[in-house]
Design a protein that fits this description.
single chain; alpha/beta; Rossmann fold; 2 domains; eight-stranded mixed beta sheet; six-stranded parallel beta sheet; 16 helices; 16 strands; globular; Glycosyltransferase; Glyco_trans_1; transferase
């Protein structure tokens, strides 16, 4: 079979959970004997604005060949920084280029991983050719231009009306900056030391920022963002199947949209293997690990407040983090960023993983990673990976706040953690890439 994926691009140019999922799935599909390609939004030219497809040499990852198609002059890619120039993100074009690509490649299925940079004409032509279209909901971009539905330290309470979208989206990158970020020059320089420092400085400030900038909001602005959402809805309605990676994702999407044809398939990645083992819980010093960024939305600052309360009652514990915190504490141990080949050692030195996300998290790979090593978890009810948690293998805190989290962390015992660990080892089902690929092919692609 021939499978064409649309995503943001290959690593190292693109990174994050979406890219990890897409690339690992493509590699697995090639291993299964399929012909696989990625189409991705690339260079935005200054003079020649016509849409074309540049066919690059195949990308070889883990000994597998993936065809490589770049869209020249796609729509802008806004990442999670917002949108202000709505017209620039809803223009159509490229029909001839997309028709030529689909005529040549003739995919059996097109798997869409994001709507960023995507022209509607691509989907319309695929639909006319009766090519099966599948969309995986990795985030909430079709609902919220900032992706997260998170505002002023809490879930956005005006998401339905869009009345505060004008204020939230003042963080949007200018189109000129986006053109630089999508340029071949930036692709080559992204991993240089100076660019890494600039990116880190920007992301640290962006993720730790609690309040949105002031902006004049009008009914007309709200109407423009509702128009943008309806535009993305029109794209999603062209899909044959919507793939949700969790019940949380499905619940949020279906509070805004109606998609009769959908399925839930929990996800995995290629570095997940069944490494479960019985752990020794004899050390009184509780080792808590947080694997997210220094972010309000991911719950880091909520966790800090909760742990400050626990520290004041003199419980012995340490919190392991993998970034340099803006404000440290006696109980914090700082580590370098980790790689997947370090997970064995990392989880050997972890008693419990905490994923305290305030925002709706479509899945949460870190939860699966912890479970794959037999590590119990304490997670927010907004984390989609709660779907894969065996009963008794961890604690899910609905409507999590500092008080609830501090109470759980204060009262949890080593005996309870040991029992959770045994339940994970005896009852858990660790989803691996081969299992996920088969389920996607059956439930999303309609293959038997």
């Amino acid at each position: 079979m021939k499978i064409l994926h649309y995503a943001l691009g290959f690593p190292p140019y693109r990174s994050g959970g979406l890219t990890k999922f897409c690339v690992d799935l493509m590699i697995q599909q090639v291993k299964e004997g399929n012909i696989v390609a990625m189409l991705w939004p690339g260079q935005m030219r200054v003079i020649n604005k016509s849409v074309s497809i540049r066919i690059h040499g195949n990308v070889k990852i883990k000994k597998q060949e993936i065809l490589n198609f770049e869209v020249i002059n796609p729509l802008p890619v806004s990442f999670d920084e917002g949108i202000t120039d709505i017209n620039a993100y809803t223009m159509n074009g490229g029909a001839e280029a997309y028709k030529e690509l689909l005529d040549k490649f003739q995919p059996d299925v097109i798997h869409i991983h994001t709507l960023m940079g995507l022209h509607k004409s691509f989907l319309e032509i695929a639909k006319r050719k009766k090519i099966r279209l599948v969309f995986t909901a990795h985030d909430f971009f079709p609902i919220c231009p900032k992706v997260t539905m998170f505002r002023n330290g809490a879930l956005c309470d005006t998401a339905q009306t869009c009345e505060n979208c004008g204020a939230c989206n003042t963080t949007a990158l200018s189109l000129n900056k986006i053109k630089i970020l999508q340029s071949p020059v930036y692709r080559r320089m992204k991993d240089s030391s100076i660019v890494k420092k600039i990116r880190k400085y920007h992301r640290d400030r962006y993720l730790s920022e609690l309040t949105t900038r002031n902006s004049t909001n009008t009914v007309e602005m709200a109407n423009q963002y509702i128009k943008l959402r309806n535009y993305y809805y029109s794209l999603l309605k062209l899909m044959d199947t919507i793939h949700y990676n969790s019940s949380v994702t499905k619940k949020v999407y279906e509070s805004f949209f109606d998609f009769p044809n959908n399925c839930i398939v929990s996800i995995s990645h290629a570095d997940i293997r069944d490494n479960r083992k019985i752990k020794n819980y004899s050390n009184d010093n509780l080792r808590i690990r947080y694997l997210g960024p220094q972010s309000y939305a991911k719950g880091y600052f909520l966790l800090r407040v909760a742990l400050d309360k626990v520290w004041n009652i003199q419980r012995k514990f340490c919190l392991d983090v993998h970034f340099e915190p803006m404000e440290s504490a006696e109980y914090i141990k700082v580590h370098e960023r980790y790689s997947y080949n370090e997970l064995d050692k990392l989880f050997d030195e972890t008693d419990v993983l905490v994923a305290p996300s305030i925002l709706y998290e479509t899945f949460g790979y870190t939860v699966l990673e912890a479970l794959s090593y037999g590590v119990p978890v304490i997670i927010s009810g907004n984390v989609g990976a709660k779907d894969i948690l065996p009963k008794g293998a961890g604690i899910v805190i609905d409507n999590m706040d500092e008080k609830k989290l501090s109470t759980v962390l204060q009262n949890i015992t080593l005996r309870q953690l040991s029992e959770m660990n045994q339940i994970i080892v005896k009852q858990g089902n660790i989803i691996q890439i081969e299992d996920m690929s088969r389920k996607i092919e059956t439930n999303c692609y309609g293959w038997i």
